[in-house]
Amino acid sequence: MLKPAEIYKGIEFVRISQLNAEQQEKIKASIKRDKIIKILIGNTLADDCIQYHDYKAWFIQTYPAKVITAQASAPTQPSLALTSKLN
Predict the structure, then answer these.
(1) DSSP assignment, residue 49?
(2) What pTM value is reported for the model?
(3) Which of 23, 52, 58, 69 is 20 to 30 A (C-alpha) from 1?
(4) Sheet containing strand 11-15, strands side by side
(5) What is the pLDDT of residue 59?
(6) Torsion (CA) 72, 77, 80, 81 in degrees, nearest 10
(7) What DSSP state is assigned to residue 42?
(8) From CA 13, how far away is CA 17, in angstroms rounded?
């Protein structure tokens, strides 16, 4: 699931350590190191951040959506024609 962004001083980001274990493993193995940034939040240095737009692009590439059209998923059935007779 796509994690919502945190915002600090106008910077939208995601902390890698806050992702689920699967995403942590995959992002660490595939993301370019220069995409990981450090943000000083008060007196705490968050050194495992990634800007949200980079995270979102990575997520879409790593977990592509499976689009199923209604027509493809519905079983084929003959259509019923309704007629009315006027007498």
Answers:
(1) E
(2) 0.71
(3) 69
(4) 6-8, 11-15, 44-51, 36-41
(5) 94
(6) 60
(7) T
(8) 12
Q: Output the six-digit token pair for 2.
A: 């796509």
- Could you give the count of Cα atoms lying within 13 Å of 37 in the half-sphere of its Cβ? 14
Predicted local confidence at residue 67, as pLDDT: 59
Average pLDDT (6-33) is 96
Torsion on CA atoms 3, 19, 33, 8, rounded to nearest 10 = 60
Instruction: Give the pLDDT confidence of 75-86 residue by residue, as tens digits.
Output: 555 545 444 455
Q: Diameter of the chain by CA atoms?
A: 87
Q: How far apart are CA 55 and CA 70, in angstroms?
A: 30
Q: Token pair of 86, please?
A: 């006027």
The pLDDT assigned to 77 comes to: 53
Torsion of CA 18, 20, 24, 26, to 10 degrees: -150
